[in-house]
Write a structure and sequence with these properties.
With 237 residues, this protein is an alpha+beta fold. 40% of the residues lie in helices and 20% in strands. A 5-stranded antiparallel beta sheet has the order 5-4-8-7-6, with helices on both faces. Strands 1-3-2 form a 3-stranded antiparallel beta sheet. Strand 6 and strand 7 form a beta hairpin. The longest helix is centred in the middle third of the chain and has 17 residues. It folds into 2 domains: 65 residues, Arc Repressor Mutant, subunit A, CATH 1.10.10.10; 144 residues, 2-Layer Sandwich (Beta-Lactamase), CATH 3.30.450.40.
Length: 237
C-alpha cells in the first residue's frame, strides 16, 4: 500500500477570514468597511458578511463604523505567546541586559515575513526612555530583521554575510536618532528569536567589542543555551 502526502486544500472562507484579520496592525488598528472591502478585493456585501461573522466570533468589533480586532484575538495571542518557550525564560536575561547597559531590551520573533516584538524591558531609572510597543511589527531591514534573515539562510546580500560572521546586526535608520543592536537566540539548531538593545544613537556604539555589544551577545547566548543550543564554535563568533 502506497501512502501519498498531499497538501490540504485551502478553505476559501478560512483564508479570507485570516486575510481580513491580518489587515489590522499596530499602525492601523482600526479600518472602515470600505477599506476592508478595497484591500480584500471583495464586494462590499461579501466583506460585510465576513466582518459580521468575525464579530460574532469575538475576533472583530465595530464602533461608529470602524472595525478593530476583538477581545478573542487577545486571548488567542496570549495562548500563542505562552506556547513560545523563549518568552517564558527570557525575562531574567532581558532584565540583566537592562541593568548592564542601561538601555531598553527587546525580544522579537519572526512571523514568517518580519520580526514582531513580543517582550520589552525598560530601564525605569532613565529620565528619557526609548519606548517600544509589544506587538510592533519591525521592518525587514531593522537590526532584528537582518539577524533573522541572516540566520534563516537568506542569500545574496553581503550585509547578511557580515551579520552571520559578527553574530549581531545594528541599524540606526528605522527611527531617526535611535539605534538598535540585535543578536540571534537559538533553540536547538534554529533561530527562534532576537534579543536587542535599543537606545539613542549617541548612547550606543555598535562596534563588535564594545561593552554593550558584548553584553548583548552574552545574554543572547545564555538564553540560547538555556533553550538547548550547543555552540559549535563556528555558529557565532
Amino acid at each position: 500500500m502506497t501512502t501519498r502526502t498531499e497538501a490540504a486544500p485551502v478553505n476559501q472562507s478560512v483564508e479570507r477570514a485570516a486575510r481580513m484579520l491580518g489587515l489590522f496592525s499596530v499602525d492601523e488598528p482600526e479600518l472602515t468597511l470600505s477599506e476592508l472591502t478595497r484591500r480584500m478585493g471583495l464586494t462590499k456585501a461579501t466583506a460585510h458578511r465576513y466582518a459580521t461573522a468575525l464579530r460574532a466570533a469575538g475576533l472583530l468589533r465595530s464602533h461608529h463604523g470602524l472595525y478593530s480586532l476583538g477581545p478573542r484575538v487577545v486571548e488567542l495571542a496570549a495562548a500563542a505567546l505562552a506556547g513560545l518557550g523563549v518568552i517564558r525564560v527570557a525575562e531574567p536575561y532581558m532584565l540583566r541586559l537592562v541593568a548592564e547597559t542601561g538601555q531598553t531590551s527587546v525580544l522579537s520573533v519572526w512571523d514568517g515575513e518580519a520580526p514582531v516584538v513580543v517582550r520589552v524591558s525598560e530601564n525605569p531609572g532613565r529620565l528619557v526612555r526609548i519606548v517600544v510597543a509589544a506587538g510592533s511589527r519591525l521592518p525587514r531591514d531593522s537590526a532584528q530583521g537582518k539577524v533573522f534573515r541572516a540566520f534563516l539562510g537568506e542569500d545574496g546580500d553581503p550585509d547578511l554575510d557580515a551579520v552571520r560572521n559578527d553574530g549581531f546586526a545594528a541599524n540606526a535608520v528605522v527611527v531617526e536618532g535611535v539605534t538598535a543592536v540585535a543578536a540571534p537566540v537559538f533553540q536547538g539548531e534554529e533561530i527562534v528569536a532576537t534579543l536587542a538593545v535599543v537606545g539613542t544613537s549617541a548612547a550606543i556604539d555598535a562596534t563588535p567589542w564594545y561593552e554593550l555589544t558584548q553584553a548583548l551577545r552574552d545574554a543572547a547566548m545564555g538564553l540560547s543555551t538555556e533553550l538547548g543550543f550547543v555552540q559549535s564554535g563556528e555558529e557565532i563568533r
